[in-house]
Every structure is written in structure tokens, then in C-alpha cells.
Automatic annotation (TrEMBL):
Source organism: Comamonas serinivorans
A matching Pfam family: Epimerase
Matches recorded under Gene3D superfamilies: NAD(P)-binding Rossmann-like Domain
Signal peptide (UniProt feature, chain positions): none
Region (Disordered): 197-217
UniProt domain NAD-dependent epimerase/dehydratase: residue ranges: 223-376
PANTHER family: NADH DEHYDROGENASE [UBIQUINONE] 1 ALPHA SUBCOMPLEX SUBUNIT 9, MITOCHONDRIAL (PTHR12126:SF11), NADH-UBIQUINONE OXIDOREDUCTASE 39 KDA SUBUNIT-RELATED (PTHR12126)
Name by which UniProt lists this protein: NAD-dependent epimerase/dehydratase domain-containing protein
Amino acid sequence: MPASSRLGFFGSLISVLTEITQMNHTHAAPLVLASLQWPVQVYYDASCRLCAAEMTNLRVRDLQQRLRFVDCSAPDFASGPVGRADLMQAMHCQDAGGRVFSGVDAFRVLYHAVGLDPVQRALAHPLLGGLSRRLYPWVARYRQRLPAWLIAPLFERAARRAALAAAQRSQTCSAGRCELPPHTPDPAQTTALASLAPEPASPGVTASATPPDGHGADHPRTILVTGASGFIGRHIAAALRARGHHVIGASRSSRPACPFSQMTQPQAWRPWLSDPASGQPVDLVINAVGALRDRPGRSLQALHADAPRALFTACAQAGVRRVVQVSALGIADNDTAYARTKRDADAHLLGLTAAGQLDGLVLRPSLVFGRGGQSSALFMALARLPVLPLPRAAHTQPIQPLAVAELAEAVVRLALGEAWPAPFAAPGSPATGLLALGGARALSMADFIASLRAQLGLPPARQLVQPEWFSQVTAWLGDVVPVSPWCSASWTLMRTPNATASGALQAALGRAPTPPEALLPSWRTPVAPVDQGATR
């Protein structure tokens, strides 16, 4: 390159950098963070995946509860400090003193509010801040078009790390379970629990004199179970009914039907948070909805993430404090749509819990076995084959199978506050945070299928290892023709360890769970379908 060209290039570069620096100096100087008045109202577009992910990140980190979040894309949105069109065009926030901030300045306020001052200071830097002001209008305009591979590492993983960090900052984090930081309860919603002194029911388990919703141990409660006609949800609903509780079953087959994947706004859930007969609010909510892949008219994003997030937000708004989310083990470190969307809902519930708006509990069970499960049916079919070709991961990666009836019992006991894995932050307070549930012991999937075959009274099968390319092709065919649980998502999940060192299931049950060698009765024991009494 000639010297004159080099000088021209560097001269242009210096001019651009000077312009950017002056731009940031002009905008950033008036912003004085020390004079902010809390709380700050945050106006954001919840229909934007990027915006929702960043708001989850902020919610989880907002331990001092300085922020109040307002979805300006909601149909029932009333008004804000500026017109709705302006709110949808750029991030806005308003402090308690009436000062309005937008764009990069709004983010500086929000990051300062949640303790991310290094990020806030970077946005105030003459060069980085000026560059941010140049880029922000473009990002805001095209935010709906940003690819998932860009959003996930920048914001969704940050929110997940923040949720886990919030749990680790708590008083207790052990045995696969974390207690989130304590919060000051609303006196109108809770009662003093300092005088309770429950006695241990069994090693590692504490029984509560008063369950977390304030009812007595024998008091029937009204409980919303979403996915109540599904594999896990049916067993949970049956276990609750067996204890005399009134179950409002929300599912595709309930009456009226619950179009779960379409209920992505909090206001859609409000009619479901009360008993239609008595008008009494529900005491707790258990979400057991799940699917392995997208179906026409039912995306995993809506089913696993958007609808549960709306449900949890509606619970917080309606004062339904106790919420249990049945998630899945093995979703932390893979980027399938199944895992990513499950993590989204988990992080949202943990964020609301860390902010003191809910008493949320996320349960992540390993492989669940029993009548009605598609994976269980596939395992039983494979167990009858004399020659068994399996992917390599089926011989190497651990799973920790548990009976669906025992999972349902553990969910009920944890939800109702009958027992929790020890230790506890405060006796009588609800168990919150993230809890991994595994069966009696870990083994490979190939060994589990061999165990089922032995329980059927059949001689050992000849096991073969499939080439990786063959596993990949058959998984792709499962995506194209969805006639079995085998697909790309299940192949990816199979290659992820699905076991936990936690003894939380035994602690929750108060007894040892059924070992893999004795799980066949779980397949032979049917569960009654959701009946009229279990529907809304």
C-alpha cells in the first residue's frame, strides 16, 4: 500500500474514532447515577427474545429489588413515560423521581442498579460508549431478526449463570440442591414461622408443622397442574387427588382445554389461577408440561419457555407464591431446542424467586420410567430384541432411572412442604432453588435395557455398537418421521451425562428409591386418566 494511501486510511480511522468519542461525550456527560431514585420502572418488549433474555439476566441479579419490569408489548399495556411506539423502538426506564432514560443511558442505569458497574463504566467510556451508541439503533431495529446462535451465548447463558450464582450466594448449597437468598416475606401473604420446631421424619428429611402455603397438614388445597394429562403430570395429579386435594388439570384434554403453547402472556393465565366453582385462588402451581421436539402449531419455544414464563409471572402478580417446575436433568450443557427452552423457564422461575416474588422450586429428574412414557415404551421394545445395536453413548454415558410414581410422590411432598432434603435455611420455610433427582444408582443405558430384559425373564441379548454416522442418520430420520422418541434431540441428550451424586430423591421420599433391577412393576402399573373432577 502506498504511503499516501496508508496516511489516508489512518486519517479516516482517526476521524471516525474522534467522531465516536465526541458522540459519547455529548450524550454520556449529563447522566449522574448517584442521584437516581429507586425503584426504576423498566419498559421492554417481551415479544423480543433478545430483550426477554436480557431482562431475565437483570431480574436474577436484582437482589436489592431496585427494578420494576413492564412489558410494553402486552395487549393490556396502559401507558408509559413516552408513547408506546417510542417504547417499542428503544429501551426506556424511569426512576422514582420521574427522570426518563433511553437507549444506552437506560442500560447504564439498569446495569448500575444490579451491580454490573464494570459494564456500566464500559458504556461510559468515550470510545466503547460512542461505539455502543452507534450500534444500538441498528440492534434495536433488527432485534427480532437476530439469530439464536448469537442471542444464546451473549444473554441466555449469562442469565443462567446469574441464576446459579444467586443460588450459590445463599446460606446453603449442597447435596445437589441450592437455597436461594432469603427475602422479606409479605406480611399479608405469610405468617411468622420462627416458633416452629419440626422433628426429623427420617435421615436427611425434615417434616413441617405448617406447610409453606399456611394450611394445616390435612387441609385440602387447590392445586393447578399443567400437563395433567401427560406422562408425569397424570401421576402427579393422581397422587394429589389420592391425598384429598382438589386438582385443576390444565391440558389439551381438560374441560375446558388449555391451549398451553398459545398462552404466552400472563393475563391468559389469570382465569386458571382460581377455582371456577368457588372462586378461591389456587394454593400452588406445578408445571409438568414437556415435549421432545417441535410439532405443527406447537413449538418448543412456546411450550417450554414462553408459556411457562407467562404462567410464573402471572403467579407472581396474583400472589400465588408456591410454584414447582418439573424440568429435566442433563440440559445444562447442550444447545438443543429442548434443553435451551427448558433452561429458559428454569432461569425465569429462579429469577422471580431470587427477587422474592415467588417461592419457586425447579426439579430436574433423570430418566423417568413407567407406563405411559414414550421412552419407557421404546426401552421395553428394545429389551425384547435378541440382538441390540445401540449408539456408542448408550454404553458410556450414565443415566439414573427413577419410577414415575416415585417422582410424582417426591414432587407432591416437596410442593406441599411435607419433607425436604436437608439442610434447610429455615425450618418451615418452603424449599426453593434447583434440585436434581436421580434414582437409586447410575448405570449406562445399555445396562438398564439389559436389566429390563432380565426382569422379563429373557436371556442376555447380544449388544452391538452402532457407528456414529448411522446414529446420526437414524436420528435425522426421526426428525423427519416423528414416530418414536428417537430424534436429533434425544441423540444429543443421550451423549450428555444424566446422573447426579445427590441423594435428594431418597431424602424427599423418606426411603430408598426403587433400584433399576426392580423397575419393571412401574411399567405394569397403569395410572388412571385425568377425570372430570381433576379438570377445570
